[in-house]
């Protein structure tokens, strides 16, 4: 039988899949790269340089990040505008999650726009930030961000940004598995929700620790978890 | 009252008020503006919202001393199986026949009950709405089993017990409209809604109904189709018949995804 495609059906399915691949997958890689700042400026700058050395980087950026991000955010705002929010009358837990998904999405539109324009394209020098983008300046990457994070306001904005992304992606994974009919029954839904929460909390922890790694060595973690300094290594090797 | 004969003892107000106030959102006709009238009704044991409305119909005088036309509402079975008396009571959508005054007052903690018509359907007059959109949705998704003729076709195909049980749950839908009223995605004709999707499950699970399976899936892939679900899951919470509506939606999501997105891989 002929398959008839409707616009809404395809646009929704595309919105759902872009949130997982590439955007969700990219967020995993992004947080993991950030976490390298735990081990100091050199390790982080090398990681940024490694990204710069990727083949076809510009194409990966355009087709793997910019276009999917543009689509996901613009269509997401259209979906949010359709919502007739009714949590006051029907305050069920998942109705609140429905609302939060839209609130975090709209907040992220602002946050990611700022984050991209500043660190990828070097804008916003006027508000006390540097005009050097991290992109293209791998050797200074750690310094640029450490300078940004001297402002408490920027640190709070970034913690909120990481939190909103982790929440939006975590619950987004739940939405994806039900929207594509992978998870169906009530018990499976509950399990998927717990798994989503676990992913969200892990990503939030990873990202927040990375933010603090630009403020003090090893971020919020005890320093045993981080790479030992040269001196520390020397002491270590004497023992054995 | 400790003896209960095995019956469930309903919670009752221990210190009931003399009278209760009833605020009703009213409207003359489809095109006129909505306004509110407040009535006072003497309390008695075991009042439900329909009996409150019947009292007001006999004494249509508002608390500010005006004689008004009696409020209009729909009712039929009076035992929560027909769905026609559905309205928004104290902000929640439910059937007015099974909404007991004691329960409402216990929950809200005051002596006023507010009655509104459902907001997602054309409001014909006062508390009466036109639920035709839901029946149009059922036509759109082919929510019936096709019959060749009126001659004797013999016994139908056998069905596994599990299928029977799941179908029974979906068959209890009374097209009341609670799921659509509580759905933050549904607003008129933009989304077909949980009710029709559950009926697609009901008829797609039937061995003869399955013959029109793809027609139903294609209807759900339209612009107002299943993809508009926002997963707030209010539908399954407010459904008075306890239909597993999210299960129906997600099971159908699976079928529609396989059919719509991966169907071409079978060519």
Topology:
The complex is a heterodimer of chains A (240) and B (267).
Chain A: H1 7-35, H2 41-52, H3 57-82, H4 93-120, H5 141-148, H6 152-179, H7 186-212, H8 230-239
Helix pairs in contact in A: 1-3, 1-6, 1-7, 3-4, 4-6, 6-7
Chain B: E1 19-26, E2 35-42, H1 49-58, E3 86-89, E4 92-95, H2 101-108, E5 112-116, E6 123-125, E7 128-129, H3 132-140, H4 161-171, H5 178-182, H6 193-204, H7 213-220, H8 234-238, H9 245-261
Parallel strand pairs in B: 1-5
Antiparallel strand pairs in B: 1-2, 3-4, 3-5, 6-7
Task: Characterise this structure.
The complex is a heterodimer of chains A (240) and B (267). Chain A has 240 residues and is mostly helical. Chain A has helices at 7-35, 41-52, 57-82, 93-120, 141-148, 152-179, 186-212, 230-239. Chain A has one domain: Up-down Bundle (3 helical TM bundles of succinate and fumarate reductases), CATH 1.20.1300.10. Chain A is built from eight helices and no strands. In chain A, helix 3 packs antiparallel against helix 4 (93-120) and helix 4 crosses helix 6. The radius of gyration of chain A is 20 Å and the shape is globular. The N and C termini of chain A lie far apart (72 Å). The model of chain A has no long low-confidence stretch (mean pLDDT 91). Chain B is α+β, with helices and mostly antiparallel strands. In chain B, a hairpin with a 2-residue loop joins strand 3 and strand 4 (92-95). In chain B, helix 6 runs antiparallel to helix 7 (213-220) and helix 7 (213-220) packs across helix 9 (245-261). The radius of gyration of chain B is 22 Å and the shape is elongated. The chains are: A mainly alpha (240), B alpha+beta (267).
